[in-house]
Amino acid sequence: MHHFTGFELTPRKVEYMKYISTRGERVNTSKMAVYFNVDPSTITKMIGELSESGYLTHVPYHGVTFTQKGKEYTEFLLRRHRILGLVLTHYGLSPEEACFESARFESYVSREMIDRICRSLGHPMMGVCGAIPHDRECCQLEADHLADEQKNVNTIQFDR
Ligand SMILES: [Zn+2]
Ligand SMILES: [Zn+2]
Fold first, then answer.
1. Which part of the chain is the HTH dtxR-type domain (predicted)?
2. What's residue 151's pLDDT?
3. Domain 1-153, CATH
């Protein structure tokens, strides 16, 4: 796991990365330009920048794939988006509203804060718009720890 704070990408690039993650490996840049309502050259430029920063590998005429770093980072982006969405649904927003609203500010929320909310929510598996990917630093370590604890204290009954 690469170390990151959650502030590595601009809000726009966060949206591009999430979009690419939902489209698989072949990303059609002209469709993407239509979706984001920008000029295709903007998409090409952004893909070039994300490749230079090590998030994507661009194979001309074949599309883009995530590097390992890009894959891990996108899992965090999805977790951040969906954890914040869950928080918003606790305060009366519908899943659609929560999805929309969290996308407006999620890029300003640190990984540290997401890990802490994730922990306090018990590492939920399902968000408002899909499954929540879990990483070792936050969720998996915790899950391992809880499993160990359960082994050690399986004679004690907890009120939960
Ligand atoms: Zn969403
Ligand atoms: Zn977690």
1. 9-67
2. 67
3. 1.10.10.10
